[in-house]
Design brief:
globular; 180 residues; single chain; alpha/beta; five-stranded parallel sheet; 7 strands; 7 helices; 14% strand; Rossmann fold
Length: 180
Amino acid sequence: MNHDRYDDAYISGILSETRTVAMVGASANINRPSYFVIKYLLGKGYAVHPINPGLAGKEIQGCRVYASLAEVPCPVDMVDIFRNSEAALEVTREAIAQKARLGLKLVWMQLSVRNDEAAAEAEAAGLKVVMNRCPKIEYGRLSGEIGWMGVNAGVVSSRRPILGAGVQNQILGGAFKKTP
């Protein structure tokens, strides 16, 4: 697969099918991007399992932190890597080793994280791969939510967002029900 560009259908399919995320490199520091992503994903209904050996046994956003993927007790759809590009290979190999036990389907590498060797090994093991992207940003972009926050997506369109669960649906969904 070409990891320089992803079709919107590929990303939206992943975000629609994923329900549980293990975030390797999660931080309890409210100023770190991983903290924002955990909070955002939880708000969208995803289950998140933070992975950070230094914080194991503690909680981030009400989620128990594990030292490694091997400690996560329940199924996980996606491993989200918040580590540098060099560390992504080791994390990917751990994900491959835990694939059957966790039911993993995907390895996602965050913005500025790209490791082609890790991607090749993951794909050879039957996992989907996304590199140099953020699920929070992609969800916001594909749901139309990002435009509500004043971010210029560079596109003017009257088409409905690809992901139908944008901020409009969540905030306004039941606001205009008729009463008898």
